[in-house]
Amino acid sequence: MRTNRLLPLAAAAALLVTACGGGGESVDTGGGGGGGGDNVLVAAVSAEPDQFDPHVTNAYASFQVLENVYDTLVVPSAEDLTMQPSLAESWTTSDDGLSWTFTLRDGVTFHDGSEFDSADVVYSFKRIIDEELSNAYRFATVSDVTAPDPRTVVVTLTRPTPNLLELIGSFKGMAIVSENAADELDLQSEANGTGPFQLESSDANATVLTTFDDHWGGAPSIDGVEFRYITEPTAALTALRNGEIQWTDNVPPQNVADLEGDEEVELGSVTSVEYFYMSMNYAVPPFDNRDVRRAIATAIDRDEVTQAARFGAAQPNQTAIPEGSPFFLEYAPFTPDQDAARQLLEQAGVQTPITMGLMVTDEYPETVAAAQVIASQLEPVGIDVEIQEEDFATWLDRQSEGDFDAFMLSWIGNIDPADFYENQHLSTGGSNYQGYSNPQVDDLLTRAATEPDQAARKALYDQAAQLIVDDVSYLYLYNPDEVQAWAPGLTGYQVRADSAIDFANVELP
Amino acid sequence: MTQLPTPGATPAAPPPAEPLPTAAPVRPRWRETLGLLARNPTAAVSAVVLVLIVLVAVFDETLAPDGPNEQDPSLQLQPPSWAHPFGTDEFGRDVFSRVILGAATSLRVGFLSVAFALVVGTLIGLLAGFYGTWVDDVLMRLMDVLFAFPAVLLAIAIVAIRGAGPANAILAIGIVYVPIFARVTRASVLGVREEVYVRASRSVGASDWRLITRHVLPNAAPPIIVQTSVSLAFAVLAEAALSFLGLGPRRPDPSWGLMLADGRGFIEQAWWYAVFPGLAIVVTVLCFNLLGDGLRDVLDPRQRTLMAGSGR
Question: Which domain of life is it from (chain B) (predicted)?
Answer without folding.
Answer: Bacteria
